[in-house]
């Protein structure tokens, strides 16, 4: 065998080895990427399920619940499309179950969407605030991935912001009512005034005029009751962290709107 033939054979062998190694690494990289995407979709499903198990059903109206369910279904379908053997065994069943859950959810929502939810503690209000912040993050992620239009994203985010404002209002109102019931009228007035302050900060479109007027009437009533009282109470600095988080959310929302206003 001539030296040229030997050299050519060696070159062919090396090329084949390089090709096999490249194919192997490409297949491994593709598998890693599929697993990364599957983990990302699974994480989205977990977050959505946590949100829906935390929020009372009346808070899932105005398209929020439908959005969350559609996001869950999209994530399940995406996992299915990855064609991973470790997921295929149960994914079809989960997709079918989720489609059934959507129909059941919509029926329940019609029955309960107008029911009131009483906010009776700062811990409860804080948990709801955190959950709505998670809804906000999910909506933004969906918009950035083009699953949600800018109009629909804006509608959802506005609804979330309104719910956050109302939760803060209801917490202050509940605290004021309790203080008023036990004769702590100064404290009650303090909470009513804080509720008014929060509503006014987000009332550019006069959405909360009726709430503010109702609170003013309650303040007038508490002031009448206060005239017969001789003891003084010191207002408590309750819910400051809740208010601060609401302000931070509004700032983030304004930033998002400014970034997308010319898109």
Automatic annotation (TrEMBL):
Region described as Disordered: 222-247
Protein species of origin: Zooshikella harenae
Name under which the protein is recorded: Uncharacterized protein
UniProt lineage: Bacteria, Pseudomonadati, Pseudomonadota, Gammaproteobacteria, Oceanospirillales
